[in-house]
Design goal:
It is a single chain. By secondary structure, the chain is mostly beta strands. The protein has a single domain, classed as Beta Barrel (Lipocalin), CATH 2.40.128. The protein has 4 helices and 11 strands; from the N terminus they run H-H-H-E-H-E-E-E-E-E-E-E-E-E-E. It has a 10-stranded antiparallel β-barrel. It is globular and about 40 Å long.
Length: 200
């Protein structure tokens, strides 16, 4: 497995873990699925430290959102680009947008990075019927070099959970927890599958 291969989450999870996921989750994350747009709303929260970190890494097209707001209308576009999958979240009311790409690195491990070179190595697993992505380390990739970000200077462990709610709905939850300062970011919201035949 190498970075030129297309992202295949069922293969990364393994057949046993993949089979424990609801069929709707399997459909949303199946390898090679077509581009799709999900619509919903999110509650956003960040700490004072989170706001500072978001400001510091803003030039790197960081996915950190320095906002505290409820019921923000949000659109999530998922599309395949090359061997990776791009996730783009657009928040209304002037909150902004975040965009990142999940792909395999040269060793076949899962990573997610922004266009500015900020990224994280990820583990993916099933837990209680939910699909979970969890960071193992952060890195900054610029000018052909990769620098590991010390844990104390990061926003903390990132955990993203995709939990199916049935009836074409799912909950997306992102949290970042610093080893010393606790939770720095928390985002959660409910999204709907597009209606059959809806524009992607």
């Amino acid at each position: 497995m190498n970075a030129s291969q297309h992202l295949d989450l069922p293969a990364l999870l393994g057949p046993a873990a993949w089979s424990r996921l609801p069929l709707a989750v399997q459909h949303r994350f199946a390898a090679g699925h077509r581009d799709v747009t999900y619509r919903g709303s999110m509650d956003l929260r960040c700490s004072r430290l989170g706001r500072v970190l978001a400001w510091l890494v803003k030039p790197l097209n960081s996915p950190l959102v320095a906002a505290n707001a409820r019921r923000v209308p949000t659109t999530v576009k998922v599309r395949t680009v090359g061997a990776g999958v791009v996730w783009e979240r657009r928040f209304e009311h002037g909150v902004g947008s975040v965009c990142s790409t999940k792909a395999l690195d040269a060793t076949g491990r899962l990573q997610e990075r922004t266009q500015g070179g900020l990224g994280m190595a990820l583990e993916v697993f099933e837990q209680d019927g939910a699909l979970v992505f969890e960071s193992r380390r952060y890195f900054l990739e610029r000018f052909g070099l990769r620098l590991v970000v010390p844990r104390l200077f990061s926003p903390g462990t990132c955990r993203v959970e995709h939990r199916d709610l049935g009836h074409g709905l799912f909950r997306f939850t992102l949290s970042m927890t610093h080893p010393l300062w606790g939770e720095t970011f928390h985002q959660t919201g409910v999204f709907a599958d597009p209606a059959p035949g809806a524009a992607r």
